[in-house]
Amino acid sequence: MNEFNWSIRVYYEDTDAGGVVYYANYLRFMERARAEWLRSLGYEQDRLIQEENLIFAVRQASIDYHKPARFNDMLDINTILHKKRGASFDIGQTIKNQQGEILCQADVKIACLNAETMRPRPLPDHILSEFI
């Protein structure tokens, strides 16, 4: 599956004093969407650590903010796999409001790491095969 959609509500704790989502929280929302994407493929991150000694880490993120989200908004987060390599993959993530307006977009590079050494390691074939 190379595309995944997930929704989240903005809570008061996600906003600043003006009721606008604090900029760093968009990254948190995207992280949650990536975790749910992996979960939808059958991969729990804690099990990947325990059973395969594997973790995923953000290597690079580039984000563009277009419009603010506000307290109690429902947000739709789209995650698309752009490229897969032996030990990493690139994804694009877009957050939209319920009206379909783009609030922010990000390009994220994810590295596959050995959980003990924190060094790059190849993605297992069974995970690569899930990334169509």
Largest sheet: 5 strands, antiparallel
Rg from Cα: 16 Å
Name the beta content range.
35-45%
Poorly predicted residue ranges: none
Number of strands: 5
The neighbouring-strand order within the major sheet is: 1-3-4-5-2
CATH homologous superfamily assignment:
Hotdog Thioesterase
The name of the CATH architecture is: Roll
Q: Order of SSEs, N→C?
A: EHHEEEEH
Percent of residues in helices: 10-25%
Spatial shape: elongated
Classify the secondary structure makeup into a structural class: alpha+beta
CATH T-level topology: Thiol Ester Dehydrase, Chain A
- In CATH, what is the class? Alpha Beta
How does this structure look, described?
This protein is α+β, with helices and mostly antiparallel strands. The chain has one domain: Roll (Thiol Ester Dehydrase, Chain A). Helices cover 23% and strands 40% of the residues. It has three helices and five strands. Strand 4 and strand 5 form a beta hairpin. The model has no long low-confidence stretch (mean pLDDT 94).
